[in-house]
Design brief:
GO terms for molecular function: DNA binding. This is Transposase. InterPro entries: Cas12f1-like_TNB, Transposase. Helix content is 41%, strand content 20%. The protein has 394 residues and is of the alpha+beta class. It folds into two domains: 166 residues, no CATH class; 168 residues, 2-Layer Sandwich (Nucleotidyltransferase, domain 5). The radius of gyration is 24 Å and the shape is globular. The two termini are 33 Å apart. It binds zinc ion (ZN). The site of zinc ion has 8 residues, from loops.
Length: 394
């Protein structure tokens, strides 16, 4: 059995005491200030590379005592993340530049490299003298190389460690699969056995969420006043509902992605931009979230297992015959669920045909045809994570 090394994140719940929480919040305040300064630099036309930002950080730390109180590692990492996000936004078409992080709508997130943290007596110790008890829910496979400490919308703190682990290599297989995303069926694949049906986790709680959101708006105080206890309670309820649905989506997506990745060596995925659907009704937004989770899991898992994952632009996939490759003259309306080829007479379910057409595009490309353009862009959940392999796009 082959064993391969892979880089993964292991995430643990943190239980910071009042002092640690205050220290983390203060640290986040300083890092947020630095991030916003970097955004200001970019907006005023100075292209802030990490090199320039580091120099500015040194100057700022010399000038401001309150900035010196914070950890230099966390501050540098904030600027590094910003610089990478900015670079990434130049590379991807239509991507906005990194935005200002406001106190009211950004959640704390701090990054530390090896010299910024240690684990002693089963506690996480961060630079700046912050000590936090960790819930060690599973054994870490190796010494972590970095950690991200963050708070979620429910106010829970987590530490996400980057570690190496040895895993059994995915079995050698030679099946191929094409994946098309949709609203009624989250993922339609070229092989019906691997379809991911839409399970409606977000839609199921939509009514309850709407009720909680109405409660929030009823209890919202005018601008400039501190929020009431009732408002904060309703806000938390809304966050809990969101979180639950998101967890269910991730869970389903993981199980599905594992099955797809284990059985296929080549995975052709429709390069779907979730924003496309999210502008309309609740049901669509819900489907969108499910698609986002499934897509992320499939790509992540496929890459880690060393499978060939190719992103195919969705243009023309629904109007191309998967049997003979002829492109129809007209677009298929959204109501037309059956694809019928005018050339060879092939008939198939619209989404199934699209999934097969996506797969056919990639296989044609592999056979050596040169009518498909290659755009190589790195792509990840975070968008600009370092040391990530690149996914070929067609
Ligand atoms: Zn045809």
């Amino acid at each position: 059995m082959f064993v391969v090394d892979e880089v993964v994140r292991f995430t643990y719940r943190l239980r910071p005491g009042a002092a640690a929480q205050a220290a983390l919040s203060a640290e986040w305040g300083r890092c947020r200030w630095l991030w916003n300064e970097a955004v200001h630099q970019q907006k005023t036309g100075r292209n802030p590379t990490f090199c320039k930002l580091s120099r500015l950080l040194t100057e700022a730390r010399a000038r401001f005592a309150w900035l010196r109180e914070g950890s230099q590692v966390a501050q540098q990492q904030t600027l590094r993340t910003y610089a990478l996000a900015l670079q990434h936004s130049y590379k991807v078409k239509g991507r906005g530049r990194p935005a200002v992080k406001r106190l009211r709508n950004s959640l704390p997130s701090l990054e530390y490299t090896v010299r910024g943290f240690t684990i002693r007596e089963r506690r996480l110790r961060l630079a700046g003298g912050i000590t936090i008890p960790v819930v060690w829910s599973r054994e870490m496979p190796s010494e972590p190389t970095s950690v991200r400490v963050y708070q979620d919308s429910l106010g829970h703190w987590y530490a996400s460690f980057v570690v190496r682990r040895a895993v059994e290599a995915a079995p050698t297989v030679d099946k191929t699969i094409g994946v098309d995303w949709g609203v009624t069926v989250t993922a339609t694949t070229s092989d019906p056995a691997y379809d991911l049906p839409y399970l409606g986790h977000r839609k199921r709680c939509a009514a309850e969420l709407a009720r909680v959101q109405r409660r929030m708006s009823r209890r919202r105080r005018p601008r400039g006043n501190p929020p009431s206890k009732g408002y904060l309670r309703a806000k938390r309820q809304a966050a809990e509902l969101h979180k639950k649905a998101a967890r269910q989506n991730t869970h389903d997506a993981r199980q599905w992605a594992k099955r797809v990745v284990d059985d296929h060596s080549l995975i052709a995925v429709e390069d779907f931009t979730p924003k496309f659907l999210a502008r309309s009704t609740m049901a669509r937004k819900a489907a969108d979230a499910a698609i986002g989770a499934a897509r992320r899991e499939l790509i992540d898992r496929g890459m880690r297992a060393g499978r060939k994952v190719v992103l195919v632009p969705p243009a023309y996939t629904t109007m191309t015959c998967s049997q003979c490759g002829t492109r129809a003259k007209e677009r298929l309306g959204l109501g037309v669920r059956i694809f019928r080829c005018g050339d060879c007479g092939h008939t198939a379910c619209r989404d199934r045909n699209a999934a097969r057409a996506i797969l056919a595009t990639v296989e044609r490309d592999r056979a050596g045809a040169d009518d498909v353009r290659h755009v190589i862009t790195s792509l990840r959940a975070g968008g600009y994570a370092r040391s990530e392999p690149e996914i070929p796009r067609l």
